[in-house]
Design brief:
The complex is a heterodimer of chains A (265) and B (270). Chain A has 265 residues and is α/β, with parallel strands linked by helices. In chain A, 34% of the residues lie in helices and 22% in strands. Chain A has a domain of 179 residues: P-loop containing nucleotide triphosphate hydrolases (Rossmann fold, 3-Layer(aba) Sandwich), CATH 3.40.50. Chain A contains 8 helices and 9 strands. In chain A, the strands form 2 sheets. In chain A, strands 5-6-7-3-8-9 form a 6-stranded mixed sheet, sandwiched between helices. In chain A, helix 4 packs across helix 5 and helix 7 crosses helix 8. The longest helix of chain A has 18 residues. Chain B folds into 2 domains: 35 residues; 220 residues, Orthogonal Bundle (MetI-like fold), CATH 1.10.3720.10. Chain B has 10 helices and no strands. Chain B is globular, with a radius of gyration of 23 Å. Classes of the chains: A alpha/beta (265), B mainly alpha (270). At the A-B interface, strand 5 and helix 3 of A face helix 7 and helix 8 of B.
């Protein structure tokens, strides 16, 4: 799939994870993400999708197996990684621009550079007009845009997204999907994206990984060979629909015990 | 803002109406049951006492407000400091929480004489009593605010390789400010109560001159019930003043972002 000497952005090998003494969340989980890929993780709840992101970010250690991020241990790789949570996780006491500049501020970037960077990012996500507003004054979609701008402010090379648009209405979600693709085309980061939505996964990804539960593991993979750049009309094409049917089927088979019974057509 | 102002005006008028009704009821009780004035003076007599002895009431008010303000400010400073320590680990909290609870459960009246003995009679020991009684709510509320930060926000800071002190000062502390104000609001009321209670014991260096608590004791021993009532009114006013001052500060610091301090400012955003 790739030349041996190219270091993958994410390399997860045979990882198991259990919290405390509970049931394993992940078992024998392996996944390699090449640089520039947009990989979506999709699967029924409880299959450990979010845990995969927590492991890649080093927020929780694996119980067994190894994880490398650009050849580094996850905790050492945080400088090139940004995390976008399901909630916008903005600080309510900070204005929009102060929120976007948070990462730069914590990393000790000087104010003038910070303000310049913040302003250009707010321009990029179309929120320059609310730079001085507080989060409570924004809609859900706008808050998520601020969250995206904040994540991009530190020039990440890997973006981890944990169902970032799950709480949004469908229209905002579609628009933000298009925006995410536009930003990725410009900035060329790698993405690992957790979602419940098949359509969202297909629209965004170069590759879709379907997980099965108990314990969480890779059930199936789909390469998404749809043309780039992708625009809203892609969602109306037969190729898109065909793939959606295939992925949905596989997703359902992941739910059946042991994944043994594959739905017949 | 306009409907807000109108609503506030209506509220004020209603409150005033209740006040007048209570005064009328009070006067009626006096007439119907022929209560002697040393038991219950008439509203009019109380008002007269208030005016006639305004200068002594003012002095008492000043002494008590200094004592309770001193106690309150000390309790906020110490309380926040203790809360910062409590927020560091669950261990520390488990070890020290019971003693904080002690602060709240020990009857202040019972330990007031002790404090007088230790600190010496006078305004300082009264301020210490006000401090002790108002410390617990500040500690409890601030600690709660510091430790109730959303886990994902902590994760976010960790992803930026934030140091523990950055997490404390840029995340936990600002997040705790609304809870801190809840604590201060509770503490502001009871610091006045604490000061007055302390004064009941503390006595005075000059006969007849002391804080509200001392003056109330003095008035009751002299059967100057109208003066006593006037002093109680002054004490109530002081409690209100503290409460509103804290509320004002809360609005000032939080109006931009926190629900508790938001007024009808819906027209300020687009």
């Amino acid at each position: 799939m790739m030349a041996d000497r190219v270091v993958p952005m994410v390399e997860i090998e045979n990882v198991a994870k259990r919290y405390g003494g509970g049931q394993p969340v992940l078992g024998g989980f392996s996944l390699s993400v090449a640089k520039g890929e947009f990989v979506s993780l999709i699967g029924p709840s409880g299959c450990g999708k979010s845990t995969v992101l927590k492991l890649i970010s080093g927020l929780t250690p694996p119980s067994a197996g190894s994880i490398r991020v650009d050849g580094m241990a996850p905790r050492d790789a945080r400088e090139i990684v940004s995390y976008i949570f399901q909630d916008a996780t903005l600080l309510p006491w900070r204005t929009v621009e102060q929120n976007v500049g948070l990462g730069l501020e914590l990393e000790g970037v000087a104010r003038p550079t910070r303000e310049q960077k913040t302003a250009s990012l707010l321009e990029l996500v179309g929120l320059a007009h609310v730079a001085k507003s507080y989060p409570r004054q924004l809609s859900g979609g706008m808050k998520m845009r601020v969250s995206i701008a904040r994540a991009l402010a530190t020039n990440p090379r890997l973006l981890l997204m944990d169902e970032p648009f799950a709480a949004l209405d469908e229209m905002s979600r579609d628009r933000l999907n298009e925006e995410i693709l536009r930003l990725q085309a410009e900035q060329k980061w790698t993405a690992v994206f957790v979602t419940h939505s098949v359509a969202e996964a297909i629209f965004l990804s170069t590759r879709i990984v379907v997980l099965a539960p108990n314990p969480g593991r890779v059930h199936a993979e789909f390469a998404v060979d749809l043309p780039v750049p992708r625009t809203a009309v892609l969602r109306d094409t037969p190729e898109f629909d065909a793939l959606a049917v295939k992925v949905s089927h596989t997703l359902r088979s992941a739910l059946t015990p042991e994944g043994a019974v594959v739905a017949s057509r | 803002m306009k409907p807000g102002v109108k609503r506030q005006l209506v509220n004020a008028v209603n409150a005033a109406a209740v006040f007048v009704a209570l005064l009328v009821l009070w006067q009626l009780v006096l007439w119907i049951f022929r209560v002697p004035s040393y038991m219950l003076p008439s509203p009019w007599a109380v008002a007269r006492a208030f005016v006639d002895r305004f200068s002594s009431i003012l002095i008492a008010l000043e002494i008590t407000s200094e004592e309770s303000a001193g106690g309150l400010i000390a309790s906020v400073l110490v309380g926040v400091l203790v809360a910062l320590i409590f927020a560091q680990s669950r261990w520390v909290r488990r070890m020290l929480y019971p003693y904080t609870l002690l602060l709240q459960t020990v009857p202040i009246i019972a330990i007031a004489p002790l404090i007088l003995m230790w600190v010496g009679a006078g305004t300082a020991s009264v301020a210490v009593i006000a401090f002790i009684i108002s410390l617990a709510p500040v500690i409890f509320n601030t600690t709660q605010g510091l430790i109730s930060v959303d886990e994902n926000l902590v994760h976010l800071f960790l992803m930026y390789n934030a140091s523990p002190s950055q997490i404390l000062f840029k995340l936990r502390l600002p997040h705790a400010v609304p809870s801190l104000f809840v604590g201060i609001r509770i503490a502001s009321g009871i610091s006045v109560i604490g000061a007055i209670t302390g004064e009941l014991y503390a006595g005075s260096s000059r006969v007849g001159v002391g804080g509200l608590g001392y003056s109330i004791l003095y008035a009751s021993s002299q059967l100057q019930t109208d003066y006593l009532f006037a002093l109680v009114v002054a004490a109530t006013v002081l409690g209100f003043a503290f409460f509103f001052l804290v509320m004002f500060l809360e609005r000032y610091f939080l109006h931009n972002w926190h629900e508790s301090a938001r007024m009808a400012d819906a027209d300020s955003d687009s």
